[in-house]
Amino acid sequence: MVLDRLQQLTHQVNATAPAPHPFDPLTTGEIDAAVALIRKEHGPVNFNAVTLYEPRKAQMMAWLSNPETAPRPARAADVVAIAPGGKVYDGIVNLDEKKIVQWEHTPNVQPLITMEDLQEVEFIVRKDAKVIEQCGIIGIPPEDMHKVYCDPWTIGYDERFGTGVRLQQALMYYRPHVDDSQYTYPLDFCPIFNAETKQIIHIDVPSVRRPLSKASPNNYLPEAIEKEGGFRKDIKPIHITQPEGVSFQVNNRTIDWQNWNIHVGFNYKEGIVLNNITFNDKGNVRPVFYRLSLAEMVVPYGNPEHPHQRKHAFDLGEYGGGYMTNSLSLGCDCKGAIHYMDAAFVNRAGASTIIKNAICIHEEDAGILFKHTDFRDESMVVTRGRKLIISHIFTAANYEYCVYWIFHQDGTVQLEIKLTGILNTYSLNPGEDTHGWGTEVYPGVNAHNHQHLFCLRVDPNIDGPQNTVFQVDAVQGPGEPGSEENKYGNAFYAKKTKYTTPLEAMSDYNASTTRTWEMANTNKLNPYSKKPVCYKLVSREVPPLLPKKGSLVYKRAGFARHAVHVTKYSDDEIHPAGRHVPQTSGEPSNGLPAWIEAAGPDCSIENTDIVLWHTFGLTHFPSPEDYPIMPAEPMTLLLRPRNFFDRNPVLDVPPSYARSPSQISSGKSDCGCQKNDGSSVLV
Amino acid sequence: MVLDRLQQLTHQVNATAPAPHPFDPLTTGEIDAAVALIRKEHGPVNFNAVTLYEPRKAQMMAWLSNPETAPRPARAADVVAIAPGGKVYDGIVNLDEKKIVQWEHTPNVQPLITMEDLQEVEFIVRKDAKVIEQCGIIGIPPEDMHKVYCDPWTIGYDERFGTGVRLQQALMYYRPHVDDSQYTYPLDFCPIFNAETKQIIHIDVPSVRRPLSKASPNNYLPEAIEKEGGFRKDIKPIHITQPEGVSFQVNNRTIDWQNWNIHVGFNYKEGIVLNNITFNDKGNVRPVFYRLSLAEMVVPYGNPEHPHQRKHAFDLGEYGGGYMTNSLSLGCDCKGAIHYMDAAFVNRAGASTIIKNAICIHEEDAGILFKHTDFRDESMVVTRGRKLIISHIFTAANYEYCVYWIFHQDGTVQLEIKLTGILNTYSLNPGEDTHGWGTEVYPGVNAHNHQHLFCLRVDPNIDGPQNTVFQVDAVQGPGEPGSEENKYGNAFYAKKTKYTTPLEAMSDYNASTTRTWEMANTNKLNPYSKKPVCYKLVSREVPPLLPKKGSLVYKRAGFARHAVHVTKYSDDEIHPAGRHVPQTSGEPSNGLPAWIEAAGPDCSIENTDIVLWHTFGLTHFPSPEDYPIMPAEPMTLLLRPRNFFDRNPVLDVPPSYARSPSQISSGKSDCGCQKNDGSSVLV
């Protein structure tokens, strides 16, 4: 009924200030206004999140198609707060009417752990008598406690403590010197922190103790490299410049580039959210995606020894990909002409805060877009491509995730993720066997096997919201070699399987058929191929969830059980592991499995408004070259138009060089066109 | 015994001119010398190939390890010639001793089809009475025969004509205007050309005729685009410049870059061949690969209707990736500071010829190499990477293959292939059903389903030639959730299976275990992980060969039956579909299957000199956006060092920005180091 109430609410346009776009993240002013209203009505609470309560889709679609006359969706804030005593409240504030439209106590959940929550643990750990005692046992004297560090993680789920008490586990490390990397000196015990009482309530101590490593530091910061002989001097500069500026226009948060139009949103959990993505097809603005985001991820570690099973971070749902985003103010992360966007959040005390340059938007040369040479006369064309990259980078304790949303001129959308940063490490005694659950990447340093499984949420809008998902398998034709129908045995075709229900749509990757998935609009056929217009998901890094069926991770990360799930669209189904992820037991499994159960696994997802959830990623068995800091490992997937366009949509990109048969036969080999970098054609 | 004879031969260093490196392709002078010797002894022959007869590995390894005193391998030419009457001769000429050491008639084979062979067919087709008759039947009057074109292909294998007679099949097209793309006007019949008699000996005519399409042209050259409204004008220039030049040194054909040392060879079949690839690991020059090349490929089409089964081109073995290589003299294919290399070949008449700028060598910025920020104090490092790209582009009739050998600073070797150019097309009547074997990409234009399957030949030299291949599968640990050994069900590990014989090594990709393959030196363990040093093949675009077991393609393309084969090294095993590919029946299957059979499928490939053959590629179901010219579709694989280095080997690459905890606490946040583009650090 919250929904109903909001359906009614429409935005009163403020005559003086331009109203934010309904998809825009909350401004600091809006955050402050929401906080003030809640303070006023509900007194002192700690704020966990104040973020955009996204416009209801039905109302938003109406407004998008008719912004002049359709009611403008209200600006609203989605609030998570923790009252004294740890009571969690979920609220919605209508900012146009300055009214709290929802304020509900949500029992037995834990909202995500903020950076502020993380920051306070280390100081408490250092002063805790039992921690000091444990440090002593492995060889760290009390006077060295300032050299003890910890990466606080949400506890995930520990059946001994359940969900009621807000907890963190402290992964312990040591730094001989403040500039040393602590990951070379992992400590073998794990304190558990109560976020309400600010106390260490328990310490998990292994049966086999592992004294502090005596190995020399293994560092990556410049001072250490200088000591080791310094930096290589044989790299000559590459300058990338755009003297005339960029090829895109930014109107507030809406970007126009090479026929694409994209609204760039951002929130504390998912980070970048791309909305209302359209492609201008020869003057016809065609909707492609209503919303794209990285909605969740899980990083299960493969060491079965207690308490390592607790290491399976949901970095988005438990910490927030937005909250952990790097400020790119220092530059150096991108080259060329960069357009940055900031990100606004609330802090625990209710003040609005800003991450400067949270989002980087820039163009890159994309190499050859297309080329052909006629072998007869060397008539030819070669055209270079461009790409638009919308990126952010977030740091999850030891690890870095660089997220690149890449738009290509030919209608392809690419999601690339680069993994870098530092391996999570645990201590290993000299000569101790890792039992294959990890790799000794440096003396005394055990880097455990792990997976990075991401969940891409695709809300397709392929020429409208009425879409259908097909599984496409490359298969052999009928008939054995020698048979009449397949005499030479070479027949093969694309076998398409329509998903009519969420149950059918629970599907895994199949490399033997190089499986892809098509999001199609069956109401619109390509005039030439007579096939439905669609976008195809091409994704090859699709490992299965390795934790077994019935395991803790399997239960908590329901979205990761299959490469693809498809659900009927629902406004409130954004987070596939649930709204509040920390300390969920997985019984029942929140998010996708619960939604599918509730809507009915046999409900129709055919020719209707649907959402496709894609789990992809990689399995990482560490090796010494990943240490002490990991060279970036890239991973990518594509969303490609198929039977969507009547024709290659980039033929009008100016070629670098072209010459026609008649130009050659007449001795003229200059195409008379410009290179697409503006300089004149080479002949 | 040819081999024995050559083992003896060593190079007499010419005091005056510097001798070519033993891996260097033949110079024009060497080609001319070989031709002269053969002319003198064997009179008039047509030359099909005169290329480097590669040094025998044993001798070459000895020389590489001791160039001062070990005998220098002889320069020798590998010759293929066709004598009058079509007799094929395989010869070897020792260029140092000016002596023909082998000249053998090879019965019942057909050497590859050269560009000269292809060029002559169209003229003959246009004059052939029966072709003119067939054109008339589908609506092309005799006076328009100059508008008739053909793409001549090797016939592949047609049981009606066998191997004895040298044949080509002419895929027929029509151009309304000389500047129109003929692929929009495919003709429905297929003449067969006898290369000896220069006659059309047969025409395959379909039972259902397909009159010439009346559709308007669908073109991509600038004049046509201008007529349709011209080029987009909203692309601003991106300039990529290297004011201080490139970061690599080229010594003849040997490249030094970022600890890599690579010899760049080139031949008419494989195109780029990379030899003696080493990595300087802190002063220790370590061998990595003896030889890398794209050794073969096959492009099976999936339409079972006769005669389309003949469309399964082996573009390297049947035409030559080197022979078909584009001259990049016109530039525009790469940006930045480019180093080019030419390619020298022989023509039919025996004259040496040159393709200018056949190979492009350049550097590119590679984005973030590594980054980490400490959430405590925002101490951090971010370092940008570089890549070195050695590339060539070849045109196989309608199609373009852009081949990029990419070297990364962290020891990774990447092979990227971009597919572009034009779809092979066949005619379709209005309303005719494609039966799913193709897609109507434009009225009357049927683009058939096809695969592109490439065979990467890897001759590993991982700290020496004694290598072993392991299959690595990510698998779940033993014990169900709740069991003592795997209480939380999260156990997983890397299961390694040693290949001891070629039979065991015949393996396919398995996505459910994200299978990789390791080329390891089991004689050398990583000091920390205690695992063998190795390079891992990470390849995800690995479709199975879709033509069925026992099919024509299955028999002819034995290499494509599995993702991986491993063989014991043999000097003469380079071409996995055999030395002479055109018109092979596949009975027996040449190349890999024959070699494995001959050496014994159970011979040992453990801890010895081995070669890994990897088949990868993609399955292409065309769609209208691929037409009239295809936006480049990329495909990539990685060869990554694992347990090879003691540590991340790029820590000494100057960071773009860094600041240490102590710098921050002391208020200094400038790392005092240079950005790796030479400019000073941002603060």
UniProtKB/TrEMBL annotation, chains A, B:
It is an enzyme of class 1 (oxidoreductase). Residues 21-104 form the Copper amine oxidase N2-terminal domain. Residues 659-668 have a biased composition (Polar residues). InterPro entries: Cu_Am_Ox_Cu-bd, Cu_Am_ox_TPQ-bd, Cu_amine_oxidase, Cu_amine_oxidase_C, Cu_amine_oxidase_C_sf, Cu_amine_oxidase_N-reg, Cu_amine_oxidase_N2, Cu_amine_oxidase_N3. The active site is at residues 315, 399. Belongs to the copper/topaquinone oxidase family. PANTHER family: COPPER AMINE OXIDASE, COPPER AMINE OXIDASE 1-RELATED. GO terms for molecular function: copper ion binding; primary methylamine oxidase activity; quinone binding. The modification 2',4',5'-topaquinone is found at residue 399. This is Amine oxidase.
